[in-house]
């Protein structure tokens, strides 16, 4: 009886091997790159390159109802394509922005203001791409195809209701998705 059980066990093992036969192999190749390319944020109006974009002072009356905009200001992100491993020739990218101080808007698509003493109310900051299309927070912009040139964006105040006067500062982080 023990011999019969042993023979059946060996036969079962042989069938298992046939079910797991290898018909071919696939190799997966790639690499993980730790290179991050330096990026300079420039306020186009002032040519300030310290990462501060000045939207300026606008009267609250220009932001008297939801959806009104003011303080339209251009800024650029310039990738240092001369840094080691940062050649941008033939590459394209999309950019996304995230808030560092809160969100605003009916779809939480705008940068909320930094909560500071006397801050303006019912005001947010909206970001647009080079074509003027709104970039929702956390979503990627349209494709930028020439990464050897500064990537142009626009920011402006946008009313979420009747604005009140006060400091109107916002902070954003950004990610560049190379393609």
From TrEMBL:
Domain Fimbrial-type adhesion residue range list: 26-179
SUPFAM superfamilies listed in its UniProt record: Bacterial adhesins (SSF49401)
InterPro entries: Adhesion_dom_fimbrial, Adhesion_dom_fimbrial_sf, Adhesion_dom_sf, Bact_Fimbrial_Adh_Pro
Swiss-Prot/TrEMBL GO biological process terms: cell adhesion involved in single-species biofilm formation
Gene Ontology terms: cellular component: pilus
Pfam families in alphabetical order: Fimbrial (PF00419)
Gene3D superfamilies attached to this UniProt entry: Fimbrial-type adhesion domain
Signal as UniProt keyword: yes
Leader peptide range in chain numbering: 1-21
Keywords from the named record: Signal
Protein name: Type 1 fimbrial protein
């Amino acid at each position: 009886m023990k011999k019969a059980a042993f023979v059946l066990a060996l036969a079962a093992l042989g069938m298992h091997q046939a079910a797991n036969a290898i018909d071919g192999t696939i190799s997966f190749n790639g690499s993980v790159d730790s290179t991050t390319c330096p990026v300079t944020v420039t306020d186009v109006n002032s040519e300030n390159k310290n990462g501060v974009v000045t939207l300026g002072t606008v009267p609250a009356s220009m932001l008297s109802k939801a959806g009104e905009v003011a303080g339209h200001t251009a800024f650029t992100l310039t990738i240092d394509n001369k840094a080691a491993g940062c050649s941008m020739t033939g590459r394209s990218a999309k950019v996304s922005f995230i808030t560092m101080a809160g969100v605003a808007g009916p779809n939480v698509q705008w940068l909320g203001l930094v909560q500071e003493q006397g801050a303006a109310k019912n005001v947010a900051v909206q970001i647009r791409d080079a074509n003027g299309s709104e970039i929702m927070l956390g979503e990627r912009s349209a494709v930028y195809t020439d990464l050897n040139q500064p990537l142009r964006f626009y920011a402006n105040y946008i009313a979420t209701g009747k604005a009140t006067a006060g400091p109107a500062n916002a902070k954003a982080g950004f990610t560049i998705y190379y393609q």
